């Protein structure tokens, strides 16, 4: 504790000397420390764990200069640095560590969003949430949007740099595909734009995450066109209603649909109304056009679903954001609420599917889910294809392109705080992941970086060891990411339990 206090004092003195203020620093002795720490925590199982280390201090940056000072002073004091924008890191690497003494650099106050007068671009600070981004864009012009994720409280900083898949990706690609410039503070505390950082680093922070390379403060994003009217629907079918056959069919046609049509599937156990368990598959969709156009497309492409006019509701694109977030009928102002929605724990894993799973295979998967007791797992399947097939695997660090039919996120949330319950859920999730192995990609079995999964492996700081898990997230791009790391941060000042290892060019 004496050592920790000494380090904190060294950091605080340095920070004051550079900013003339300490009011944005919260140490463990500060009465507001826990409130600030928990302000955007999404996964309580890490915060309540005795095996994780909490930050020795938190800096709530109010200016870019605060960020530069925090980086420089962390270096000087010998402290690790974790950057948090929305707190959605699936393995909580933005707010706890596995033993490293560190500070949190919280960017929540850096949330400015400026849309240019021609509605072609916007500058978005890293602390802004997706809800704030969508709301601000739509309030400026309701026929432009940005292709990113569904959850409105996710922070732009982590989401954009990790890829950013969502309902518009089949039309426009990922969030990272639509970043035109960025401002980043490097390990020396210098503020760099795209030109100053160079194309290698700019490539890396689009899909490779920023946590290994620097602190991204702001993004210049390309806005995309959406029609005044879009049409979502959510149609649920259970096993008696041919859910298996519908999902089997969906696998092969969803990636080939018109790019304006996005249909994902959420599969989970449910009561069939007779106190028996069944599988429900929710076909959750967005069409960039009118209801009549959608019905015509569905009649030609997926008549088996039996979509009816009453299943579809025409609305603005911003209203569709509310629809997918579970806020249908609410005021768009709710998108500005940054409060964590759930006071809970969760675990997730991910896969990519390259070959459609057979009807028999799906039946085995349903059987596995139905045999489980009190395991609240949802399989969320997002189709690729369209624009995603047109961009090469190496265009940016995000590599999951042509050849993938869809992504699966295995997601489980629970509210119990007992450690035994945690371990039971985690153990079952791992069994589910093992069970799925024959049905998904292989060599490597790929995963989506924004669905962080520490079970894939912890960083050893050596490329030869870390490629085992790194190739799962980044495929062949992992080596280039390691080269970039070796160029910009060879001593791994920016690091966490799954950070990119440095690799020198001579290797």
From TrEMBL:
Coiled-coil stretches noted in the UniProt entry, renumbered to this chain: none
Transmembrane intervals: none
GO molecular function annotations of the record: FAD binding; oxidoreductase activity
Alphabetically ordered keywords of this record: FAD, Flavoprotein, Glycoprotein, Oxidoreductase, Signal
Location of the FAD-binding PCMH-type domain: 51-226
Family stated for the protein in its record: Belongs to the oxygen-dependent FAD-linked oxidoreductase family.
Name of the protein this chain belongs to: FAD-binding PCMH-type domain-containing protein
């Amino acid at each position: 504790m004496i050592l920790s206090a000494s380090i904190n004092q060294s950091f605080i003195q340095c920070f004051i000397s550079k900013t003339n203020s300490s009011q944005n620093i919260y140490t463990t002795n500060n009465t507001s420390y826990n409130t600030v720490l928990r302000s955007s925590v999404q996964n309580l199982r890490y915060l309540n764990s005795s095996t994780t280390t909490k930050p020795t201090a938190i800096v709530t940056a109010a200016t870019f200069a605060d960020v530069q000072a925090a980086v420089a002073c962390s270096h000087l004091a010998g402290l690790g640095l974790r950057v948090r924008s929305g707190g959605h890191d699936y393995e909580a690497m933005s707010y706890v560590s596995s033993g490293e003494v560190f500070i949190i650099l919280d960017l929540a106050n850096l949330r400015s969003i400026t849309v240019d007068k021609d509605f072609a671009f916007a500058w978005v600070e890293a602390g802004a949430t997706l809800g704030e981004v969508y709301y601000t864009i739509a309030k400026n012009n309701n026929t432009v949007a940005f292709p990113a994720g569904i959850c409105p409280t996710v922070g732009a900083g982590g989401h954009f740099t990790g890829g950013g898949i969502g309902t518009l990706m089949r039309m426009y690609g990922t969030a990272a595909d639509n970043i035109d410039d960025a401002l980043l503070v490097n390990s020396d505390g210098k503020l760099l734009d795209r030109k100053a950082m160079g194309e290698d680093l700019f490539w890396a922070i689009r899909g490779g995450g920023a946590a290994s390379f620097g602190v991204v403060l702001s993004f210049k994003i390309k806005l995309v066109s959406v029609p005044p009217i879009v049409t979502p629907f959510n149609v649920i079918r259970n096993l008696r209603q041919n859910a298996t056959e519908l999902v089997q069919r969906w696998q092969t046609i969803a990636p080939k649909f018109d790019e304006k049509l996005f249909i994902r599937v959420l599969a989970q156990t449910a009561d069939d109304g007779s106190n028996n368990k069944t599988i429900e598959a929710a076909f959750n969709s967005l069409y960039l056009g009118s209801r009549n156009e959608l019905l015509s497309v569905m009649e030609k492409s997926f008549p088996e679903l039996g979509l009816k006019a009453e299943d579809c509701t025409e609305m603005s694109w911003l209203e569709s954001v509310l629809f997918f977030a579970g806020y249908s009928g609410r005021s768009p102002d709710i998108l500005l609420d940054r409060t964590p929605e759930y006071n809970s724990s969760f675990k997730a894993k991910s896969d990519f599917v390259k070959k459609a799973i057979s009807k028999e295979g799906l039946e085995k998967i349903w059987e596995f889910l139905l045999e489980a007791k009190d395991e609240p797992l949802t399989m969320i399947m997002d189709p690729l294809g369209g624009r995603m097939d047109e961009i090469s695997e190496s265009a940016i660090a995000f590599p999951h392109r042509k050849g993938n039919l869809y992504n699966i996120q295995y997601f489980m949330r629970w509210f119990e705080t007992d450690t035994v319950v945690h371990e039971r859920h985690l153990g079952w999730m791992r069994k589910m992941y093992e069970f799925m192995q024959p049905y998904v990609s292989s060599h490597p079995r790929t995963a989506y970086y924004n669905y962080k999964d520490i079970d894939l492996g912890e960083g050893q700081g050596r490329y030869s060891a870390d490629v085992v898990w790194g190739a799962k997230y980044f495929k062949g791009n992992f080596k280039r990411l390691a080269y970039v790391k070796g160029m910009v941060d060879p001593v791994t000042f920016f690091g966490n339990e799954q950070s990119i290892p440095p690799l020198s060019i001579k290797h």
